[in-house]
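Predict structure. Chain length: 315.
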Amino acid sequence: MKLFKVLSLLVFATIIAGCDDSDDGDGGQSSGSQSANVNRNAPAYAGLQFPKVKGGKSDVITHSTSAFGDTYSLEWDHQLKAQRWTCYYFTKSNKVKNWSRNQWDGASWEGKTWSGDPFQLDPKIPYKEQPSVTGEFSGSSYPDKGFTYFQRGHICASEDRMASKEANGQTFYMSNMFPQGDKFNGKLWSKMESFVRNDWGKNVTGNDTLFVVKGGTIDRENDILCRTRSGFIVPRYFFMALLLKKNNSYQAMAFWVEHINSDHSGDKLYSYACNIKTLEEKTNIDFFCNLPDDIESAVETQDLATIKRLWNLTK
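Prediction complete.
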């Protein structure tokens, strides 16, 4: 962490000036800076975890618990029947582990006793817009694209929400799933999730926060790999955008990865890293738009060499 502290002083000396962050009351954090911000969200989505909300035929859905606040939020496109992104955050209080996935066998929740993972339809989204809990992904095969079937791939990872049974259960809503090949979901994607949770989640102490935005590409036909047997989108690319607020300074980076059903877990993560500006160009999503514009510009345009050093992308 000495390297992080030294480089933070060099990179963020001009960013920190005049920045005073405060809790916005919804579990995330919004900047109290007086700097200009011409593209921020409406107050309901002012937390730093939120990208710019598209609106129109989309709605923002938030799942939360009384004990640990927001589990995650997502923007659901009712026309495309898919989420645009999922966002959430790690704090000292919500990254605790009070539950484990193997405890679902025989556990009761939401009026049902489960014999395993509690996959179910999201009660906040019309059921007809969601893929069926079983059969839709596993029954869709596209061998010409290298996929014999798809798994229910979490966007907000189950392991990221172990503070309580309820929080973990909410990650199993089908709105939080994309079809993913098993050699992608359980290998490279899982490695990236572990990096976020374990390598950088451990840096969240005191009042620090790690903001996370994840998703798959759904808007442009060239960015859609194929569709399941009932027409649900299979993204060609997946992404992660990360913003670490530590000691009143900010650091951001992103991952952009093609959805290929082969084991690339041995690849170095830095080969998939980019800055936030590059990810915005690829996805047409404005990440971390609630930061004041000067801070947002500084953290989103860092060069890749600096990102590799600050985020210790050695694995």
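Summary: The helical segments are 2-16, 165-170, 182-200, 276-283, 293-300, 304-310.
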